[in-house]
Amino acid sequence: xxxxxxxxxxxxxxxxxxxxxxxxxxxxxxxxxxxxxxxxxxxxxxxxxxxxxxxxxxxxxxxxxxxxxxxxxxxxxxxxxxxxxxxxxxxxxxxxxxxxxxxxxxxxxxxxxxxxxxxxxxxxxxxxxxxxxxxxxxxxxxxxxxxxxxxxxxxxxxxxxxxxxxxxxxxxxxxxxxxxxxxxxxxxxxxxxxxxxxxxxxxxxxxxxxxxxxxxxxxxxxxxx
Length: 225
Ligand SMILES: *Cc1c(COP(=O)(O)O)cnc(C)c1O
Prior knowledge:
This protein is α/β, with parallel strands linked by helices.
């Protein structure tokens, strides 16, 4: 399938989900996850009108950056090793995977501007998933206050891979509740307005529960170039 065709279908799904819950589709930022696909396919995505690309490894991001530069806004969505921060820090608009103090320290040290970070939360409590436990998130975020180059733009989670709509919904709702609690703290370094949740399998439910950033690979650009 052409990216443009997939995009048309997904855009319609986004609109339908927004109508159901009275949201404006413009509130939902679509990130095309290009980690499985070639640079050519990423170019096709940009030609189709995509403006945000996501990669989960520094090598993947750098290889595509070489060709595409800052034409798209780049999102780093994978778990990030501290020593890799310097490779990507100047290139990304968002880091979706802030999950520990040592990483925050390195981002703060290497950045020469304020970087929008999303704190990754393991909302479903799956052993295999990265991220803070929901009950740790608020203390963690408060501890980021000294880092002048970090803005806590929001929260990110990966839901379990399942068709169980109830489970997905409760996972996304938990993240939204947590985001609301943090917003109420009115911390100037943590506006926490974004909710990065929803992938190919579950983005409709995520939007119904308040997602502002969805990260879609398979359903949009496919699994291989
Ligand atoms: C791979 C990946 C995605 C996209 O997954 P699809 O199921 O292919 O849409 C989204 N978020 C993260 C963090 C990923 O690693």
